[in-house]
Amino acid sequence: MRDADVRILKKIVSEIEYLEKLLGEVDLDAFLADETIERASSMTTINVGELAKRLSEGFYAEHPGTELRFAAKTRDVYAHGYFTLSFETVYKTAVEDYPRLKLAVLEMIEAEEADRDARYEKELMEVIEGGRADLAAGRYVVGIENAKERLRQMEEESSNDFE
């Protein structure tokens, strides 16, 4: 998964959490009685869908059954539905569908981060093992910071030789 996909997924979670905070204990009647909450919820749902549209094709190939495709389509309906938008549907999406979607997205993020950690650990072990092989063969390999420090020490030693 691309880094951009992970950032988008995290933003989707953020948008859903905003909806959760906005709606809190708001029931359908209270929701329908508050135009500001209706509009804010609709816009946030559109944001989720817009973000879902920005995920890479590689992401969708890796996760073919994800509900994020539906979020993207929902965005189109909400954004272009004009006066036919049902706020009952917005509410249902926010309180029934998005909590489930949030959990699925969090699982994707967690799996990707675990996979990245495993790849990093493997690469690190390969570098360490390679360094050990170099030491065993009489070659000395150092990191850039160690090299800079050793050069500074050598410069100090050579300047001391001329005093």
Element layout with pairings:
Elements: H1 3-23, H2 28-32, H3 35-53, H4 57-62, H5 68-80, H6 87-136, H7 144-161
Q: What is the CA-based Rg, rounded?
A: 26 Å
What are the secondary-structure elements, in order, as H or E? HHHHHHH
Strand content: under 5%
Query: What share of the residues lie within helices?
Result: over 70%
| Main beta sheet strand tally, sense and closure | none
First-to-last CA distance:
58 Å
Shape summary: elongated
Q: Would you give an account of this structure?
A:
With 163 residues, the protein is mainly α. It has 7 helices and no strands. It has helices at 3-23, 28-32, 35-53, 57-62, 68-80, 87-136, 144-161. The protein is elongated and about 80 Å long.
Keywords:
163 residues, mainly alpha, 2 domains
Short summary:
The chain has helices at about 5-25, 30, 35-55, 55-60, 70-80, 85-135, 145-160. With about 160 residues, the protein is an all-alpha fold.
